[in-house]
Amino acid sequence: MTYFLCPVCGKKLTEHEKGAVCPDGHSFDKAKSGYINLLPNNLPAGNHGDNKLMIRARHDFLEKGYYLPLRDNICEVIKEYAEVSPVIIDAGCGEGWYTKGIFDYIEDAEILAVDISKDAMKIAAKREKQIKCAAASVFHLPIEDECANICLSVFSPLCEAEFNRVLRKGGYFIYVIPAENHLWSLKKAVYDEPYKNEVKPYEMESFIFKEKFSVDGVLKMQSADDVRNLFMMTPYYYKTSQSDTEKLLASPPERIEYAFEILIFQKK
User: Fold this and answer.
1) Which residues pair with 21 in a beta bridge?
2) Cα–Cα distance between 114 and 143 in angstroms, integer?
3) Which end of the chain is more exposed for a tag (fewer CB within 10 A), N or C?
4) Secondary structure of residue 206 in the 3-state scheme
5) Which of 113, 108, 114, 112 is nearest to 82 (CA)?
6) Could you tell me the strand order of the sheet in which 148-154 lies?
């Protein structure tokens, strides 16, 4: 069964071995890695979403298990709120590290994983063939209305209207964001005047805020390469001068705080 829609006409896609096709004959090939490209043809030329450098850094960092406490807590929250055999959308799934963890943890879940970066989807689609993967934007999800029990967004762009559209009545939106003190030691090692993360108000027009879970602790860094990868997978890296980056790598902190918030909203 597929919940994906044709990005051209909006009609339901039928999947086959080599891709998918809609009733009007619009056809979409499946990449060798297993994802379907459902990005619109009129996108500007060039890369979209995270670039290869950020994806590789994040992949190498996550595979070391540093963020396992966060993934475990996300899985526990989803299990608490999910119905039997839920449909779960991972909107902005990146290279699928959290997605695969959820698949392994939640029994009989139908999981749709979407990210605008085709480079990220190449990795995500290889992790588990039963996860339905598509290259697409979270701002234009090629997914049926009201099909999902849970929509998850981990450090990804927020598109309230689309998440509301794809969720069933009473479904849950789970939003994972960095908390105020996230990576504070890393920032202190880079900037002369570090600043804490701004946590915005939780209110949303289409959703009722239910509860919040905090996940925090200290990362014991195993190597300077891991510190570099952690820095490169954040937006800070691309806004930091070369001299400040070199300062960090010359004397990388051995312990770095992590702090996350898992926010649960219910569709009105």
Assistant:
1) 14, 27
2) 10
3) N
4) coil
5) 108
6) 36-37, 132-135, 110-115, 87-91, 148-154, 167-178, 255-267, 207-220
Q: Which amino acid is at 39?
A: L
Cα Rg, the chain, nearest whole Å: 19
What are 229's two structure tokens? Answer: 């990868």
3-state helix, strand, coil in the chain (%, to 5): 30, 30, 40
Structural tokens at position 219? 């990362």
Determine the residue type at 239: K
Q: Which residue has the tokens 């937006």?
A: 235
Please answer whether residues 262 and 77 qualify as being in contact, where contact means their C-beta atoms are separated by less than 8 angstroms.
Answer: yes
C-alpha–C-alpha distance, residues 28 and 39, integer Å: 10
With H, G, I as helix, E, B as strand and everything else as coil, classify residue 176: strand
The first and second tokens of residue 191, run together, are: 């900037």
- What does the pLDDT profile of the chain (268 residues) look like in tens digits? 589 999 999 999 999 889 999 999 999 999 999 999 999 876 655 556 788 999 999 999 999 999 999 999 999 999 999 989 999 999 999 999 999 999 999 999 999 999 999 999 999 999 999 999 999 999 999 999 999 999 999 999 999 999 999 999 999 999 999 999 999 999 999 988 888 998 888 889 999 999 999 999 999 999 999 999 999 998 888 888 888 888 898 999 999 999 999 999 999 9
Taking the CB of residue 267, how many other CB atoms lie within 10 A of it?
Answer: 20
| Best CA proximity match to 167, nearest among 222, 112, 218, 126 | 112
